[in-house]
Amino acid sequence: MKYISTLFLIVFNLGNLFSQFVDTTNHLQTFEKISSGFLINTGFLKTTKDLIINEERSNESLDQILQGETINYLKTYGPGSLSSISTRGGNAQQTSLIYNDFVINNPLNGAVDLSTIPSVFFNSINVLYGLSSSNQSNGGLAGSILLNDNPSNKNFVEFGSVYGSYEQNTNYLKLNYSKKNIVTSFNVFRKSALNNFKYLDLYNNEKKQENSSFNHLAIMSTSKILLPKSVFKVIYFGQIIKRRIPSGMLESTSNAFQEDINNRVFLTFKHRFINSYIQLKSAYYNEENIYTDSIRSIFGNNPCKTFINQIDFSKSINDFNLLKFNLTNSLAYSNGNNFNETARINRTSFTSSFKINNPDFKLKHILTTSILFDNNNLSPITFTYSLKREFLNQFNVYLNTGKVYRFPTINDLYWNPGGNENLLPENGYTSDLGLVFTKKVNKATLTFEPSLYSRWIDNWILWQPNGIFWSPMNVKKVWNRGIETSSRFNISNKKLDYQFTIKTAYNMSTNVKVENSNNSSLNKQLVYTPHYKLVFKSQLKFKDLSITYIHNYTGYRFTSRDNENHLPSFNLGRLFVSYRFQLKNSSAKIFYKINNLYNTNYQLVMNRAMPLMNHEIGINLKLSK
After folding, report:
1. Residue 541 pLDDT > 90
2. How far apart are CA 458 and CA 475, in angstroms?
3. DSSP assignment of 71-115, as one string?
4. 0.85 cut: is pTM over it?
5. Cβ distance 219 to 225 under 8 Å?
């Protein structure tokens, strides 16, 4: 940590030295992006910005988008099955999924099943790596995923249909109406698949997946009323997901079944004053998970209701500086059959941020402080310091350092059997340092972004055997560190557009302290945390024809804490071909996809089969007025 901090100070002083030779007449604008109302330091972080959801990706869930185009690792049990994320070696609970300024991680287990989030409801996705100033001040130790919908002011009807291998069938409908001060939209999505794909077992014998079908129905409705100085918005997001749970490769036949019923409502009222605004926001989640396995006599019912209320105030101080305050209360409770009584958490956080912009030196700072408390815990005052600096008109340097904190989830505390009410919160320190180089020559643009990060987490919460059942414990201290790069080349003219992107990551995530000195996990890499990850994307557009290739390399992953067992590395390729037909007030696109182009036999979770080469074909039609 001290070495990273020293490096930060050196870079900061170099930035001041360079500023003496730079034209300071222009304000800093490069890669400044405020993606969310409360993640106001977005431009100060390493960010996978604006992953655009094109029509050919409309049948894919969020985990498929992230697995193919980011350096995150997705633990996926199979198509349509449970999928969780690891960001920079963190666990699923340490990455926040954010929509409409609300964290939508489930309060019971603290995670999100990313296979249940249909990408077609959103225009783009932003992935933030490292420290992020969240109103919740809890959970996002490793990073955040922002879902952006950006409603259109045009009237249109859009319909899409995709058919694929294993009897996959996806249909969606999007309606948008805008008139004067009212904008409303209605989206519906349905996807089903028998999922009886072929795979190779542990002895390279070809098998067919069984008991793996799923059916997913989702609805999202948004209404926005625009007044002279105010905006009122209400959003409903509902889902019914029915899945059969297949057995692992070494398990006997399964007849397990899972049903998820999720209803989420978001309300936002925003009023503007001179140089300031206030937002009142509320969210209500009613989520239920039902799991049945008659063979193993498991009948689980896990409902959870959540109420979140926020007050957000922002004040501009002159033309350059911003002061922001947020007060958030989150109440969640469950009366599931694995709790002795109704389990609840009631947490409140207060966050303040001050952004300073010095245009003379093309320099920006953000200082954020937070405090979080509930009935059992009071966090220390956590903080974030962020800096961004432009020099020589082509370089931007950013750094972040701060203290992070995460309280245990409802299941961690109260699950029966195994819950541990004596758990301590996870806490630690994190730092980032990155450089962005941008060079434009005629119609070509080259961008290169290397970054370093280091994160120390104490009291890491881990479920492990405790007698005849599993229980969460504060078992270790973890050090996550690594190097990441992102390179992009783009050239375009009136008829041709070519883009090439390559992202790499090298990650070390080790246990540097454990309860028992004889523990075999000491100084070993965390399970399911690859050292290496590489993603590159090549896209060629000629007039209305588009050809895209995405390649994903994932290094070996250890499956035991002593690092004696591992899953082998693998390469995956995907090919997309699409053609758009443009009419006066409408457009249509047809597309074809080949998934697992090289017929790779691989696993993301040990003994959980993944499909070999498979195909999809689809059509999209959009009528505008």
Report:
1. yes
2. 9
3. S-EEEESSTTS-EEEESTT--GGGEEEEETTEE---TTTS---GG
4. yes
5. no
> What does the pLDDT read at residue 414?
96
Residue 271, Cβ neighbours under 10 Å: how many?
14
CB atoms within 10 A of CB 398: 25
CA distance 557 to 576: 28
Amino acid identity for residue 354 in this structure: F
**HSE of 510 in the Cβ direction (CA atoms, 13 Å)?**
11
The letter for the amino acid at 480 is: N
User: Residue 511 CB: number of other CB atoms within 10 A?
Assistant: 21
Contact 432, 452 (CB under 8 A): yes
Residues pairing with 350 in the sheet: 327, 371
Measure CA of the first residue to CA of the last residue in the chain; give whole Å.
57
pLDDT higher than threshold 90 for residue 132: no
∠ CA 329-335-336, rounded to 5°: 120
- The pair of structure tokens assigned to 511 is 């246990």
Helices and strands, number each (H, E), in the chain: 3, 33
All residues at 6 or more sequence positions from 291 whose CB lies less than 8 Å from its CB, including other chains: 245, 256, 257, 258, 298, 299, 300, 302
| Listed residue (346, 350, 351) closest to 307, CA to CA | 346
Number of Cβ within 10 Å of residue 496's Cβ equals 12
Q: Count CB neighbours of 623 within 10 A.
A: 14
* H helix runs in 493-559, sequence order: none
The closest of 175, 278, 306 to 623, measured between CA atoms, is 175
For 269, 306, 308, 373, 538, the CA distances from 331, given in Å and listed in that order, are 20, 6, 6, 12, 45
Q: Is 319 exposed, middle or buried (0-12, 13-18, 19+ CB in 10 A)?
A: exposed
Predicted confidence band at 476 (pLDDT cuts at 50, 70, 90)?
Answer: confident
* Nearest of 506, 608, 619 to residue 80 by alpha carbon: 608
Indicate the average pLDDT of the chain.
88
Which spans in 270-369 are helix H? none
How crowded is residue 568: how many other Cβ atoms within 10 Å of its Cβ? Answer: 11
User: What distance in Å separates the CA atoms of residue 82 and residue 248, rounded to the nearest whole number?
Assistant: 13
Cβ neighbours, 10 Å, residue 495 = 8
> Do β-strands 566-567 and 102-103 pair in parallel, antiparallel, or remain unpaired?
unpaired
What string of H, E and C letters represents the secondary structure of 370-411?
Answer: EEEECCCCECCCEEEEEEEEEECCCEEEEEEEEEEEECCCHH
Chain centre distance of CA 111: 11
pLDDT given at position 518: 61
Place of tokens 């209803």: 263
